[in-house]
Amino acid sequence: MTTTAWAMMLVTDILVTVITVYFFVKVLRTPSKEEPDSFSHNDSE
Q: What SS3 string covers the chain?
């Protein structure tokens, strides 16, 4: 492989890794939504 091919492969691998880590951290830091309790929601009282 040529030097240009190695550089392009390295840049692509690093970019994909950075984007993956960014979104993974974003998902882990997002607070979870509180879901309504299905039993108390269906009470007729």
A: CCHHHHHHHHHHHHHHHHHHHHHHHHHHHCCCCCCCCHHHHCCCC
The number of residues making up the chain comes to 45
Over residues 2-19, the pLDDT tens digits come to: 999 999 999 999 999 999
- 3-state class (DSSP) for residue 32: coil
Question: Average pLDDT over the chain, rounded to whole?
Answer: 87
Pairwise CA distance, residues 43 & 45, whole Å? 6
Task: Tally helices (H) and strands (E) across the chain.
Answer: 2, 0
